[in-house]
Design brief:
The chain has 14 helices and 15 strands. Helix content is 36%, strand content 16%. By secondary structure, the protein is of the alpha/beta class. α6 packs across α7 and α10 packs across α11. A hairpin with a 2-residue loop joins β14 and β15. It starts with a strand and ends with a helix. The longest helix has 22 residues. The protein has two domains: 183 residues, NAD(P)-binding Rossmann-like Domain (Rossmann fold), CATH 3.40.50.720; 169 residues, NAD(P)-binding Rossmann-like Domain (Rossmann fold, 3-Layer(aba) Sandwich). The strands form two sheets. It has an eight-stranded mixed beta sheet, sandwiched between helices. It is globular and about 65 Å long. Bound molecules: 1,4-dihydronicotinamide adenine dinucleotide, pyruvic acid (PYR) and magnesium ion. The site of 1,4-dihydronicotinamide adenine dinucleotide (NAI) has 35 residues, from α6, α7 and β8. Pyruvic acid binds next to loops. It catalyses: L-alanine + NAD(+) + H2O = pyruvate + NH4(+) + NADH + H(+).
């Protein structure tokens, strides 16, 4: 199969969809890989490294989209990329369609086969292609939040860990999954006081067994959220209902309960965000203020630490990329229900139920759409 890796074009997105080591594996399986000129240069993945791995460098994204049978990317296709996708072509990347009607319409129109990293599953009920970036974003959320708490950034001027004689900050984490546990670990490491809320009692039990009295676990109700907001200095939004738009768990009115200059980091923004006042921001302009509360809502946080993230992402995506290339989309998808769960759009049909429901499309089960 001819596999194409274009340069990412989202704001300050320096990740690339495949490392040179990943390219080498695909080539060893008998496939051809084309990579856009300087696609990974800014994170030290030079053309030379890709060529040594057996890939070929091409000048433009247009050439990659025109020639490749499978496109491997990181972020959802931007409008200009959607226009270049075509019928029968495999798109393997993050999509986050539920909050993004325009992209969804673009993919439907293209006729391509679009597999979303974030809805591929595993045997343990996890999301193995989302997990590495959730680890990154969870860890980053605390450093981003700590920075936003600095007075010069508009924050309340509180240091997460406090100092001897001055109490530490309170960090509230809503959603105790992969983002949540990584955020909690970083916050604990900085000596902050951590409260973590989730709807899954099993998950709360697991967190309690792991961290004991170093964290407080709370079952996530509107009451518990309201009560915890009153003393939180930093709130991390880390909930997920796979494939669906994020539930709004903090309203604008509830911001008035918070201390002025407190910070909300909405990691769930890529699924539309879990705070009513969230709107997606970029690494260039990451924060804004609503009613005295600082909001950080960057939808591609791992792009900020693009080198670490690129290696972590390829580690997870490569095995499925090899299956797709070896077998073709239809056989690879039908052979593996976990990969099949990643199929969101095929030949103009929406094959992921939550996306169809949230955006008003007819849902066609993936196996049926593939015929
Ligand atoms: N902004 C960014 O750059 C990035 C965003 N993300 C996003 O972060 C979000 C979280 O991802 P993961 O941690 O991997 O998901 P996960 O599935 O591991 O964890 C989500 C947790 O939310 C919990 N939850 C669901 N409804 C809840 C509620 N009402 N109250 C409290 N908890 C609730 C679930 O029980 C689960 O434990 C996703 O939207 C993901 O796409 C992930 C990576 C990067
Ligand atoms: C998961 C995601 O949206 C990202 O890594 O940018
Ligand atoms: Mg997005």
């Amino acid at each position: 199969m001819l596999i194409g890796v274009p340069k990412e074009i989202k704001n300050h997105e320096y990740r690339i969809g495949l490392t040179p080591a990943g390219a080498r594996e695909l080539v060893q399986h008998g496939h051809q890989v084309i990579v856009q000129n300087d696609g990974g240069k800014s994170i030290g993945l030079t053309n030379d490294l890709y060529e040594k791995a057996g890939a070929r460098i091409v000048d433009t994204a247009e050439e990659i989209f025109a020639k490749a049978e499978m496109i491997i990317k990181v972020k959802e296709p931007q409008a200009v990329e959607c226009q270049m996708l075509r019928e029968g072509q495999i798109l393997y990347t993050y999509l986050h369609l539920a909050p993004d009607p325009e992209q969804t319409a673009g993919l439907v129109k293209s006729g391509c086969t679009a597999i979303a990293y974030e809805t591929v599953t595993d045997r343990k009920g996890g999301l193995p292609l989302l997990a590495p970036m959730s680890e990154v974003a969870g860890r980053m959320s605390i450093q981003a939040g700590a920075h936003a708490l600095e007075r010069a950034q508009g924050g309340s001027g509180v240091l997460l860990g406090g100092v001897p004689g001055v109490k530490p900050a309170n960090v509230m984490v809503i959603g105790g999954g992969v983002v949540g546990i990584n955020a909690a670990r970083m916050a604990m490491g900085m000596n902050a006081r951590v409260t973590i809320l989730d709807r899954s009692l099993d998950r709360l039990k697991y967190l309690d067994e792991l961290y004991g009295d170093r964290i407080t676990t709370l079952y996530s109700t509107a009451d518990a959220i309201e009560e915890t907001l009153r003393y939180a200095d930093l709130v991390i939004g880390a909930v997920l209902i796979p494939g669906a738009a994020a539930p709004k768990l903090v309203t604008r009115a509830q911001l008035a309960l918070m201390k002025p200059g407190s910070v909300l980091v909405d990691v769930a923004i890529d699924q539309g965000g879990c705070f009513e006042t969230s709107k997606a921001t970029t690494h260039q302009n990451p924060t804004y203020e609503v009613d005295g509360i600082i909001h950080y809502c960057v939808a591609n946080m791992p792009g900020g630490v693009a080198r670490t993230s690129t290696f972590a992402l390829t580690n997870a995506t490569l095995p499925f990329a090899v299956q797709l290339a070896n077998k073709g989309a239809k056989r690879a998808l039908l052979d593996d229900t976990h990969l099949l769960n990643g199929l969101n759009v095929h030949a103009g049909q929406i094959t992921y139920e939550a996306v169809a429901r949230d955006l008003g499309y007819t849902y066609v089960p993936a196996a049926k759409a593939l015929g």
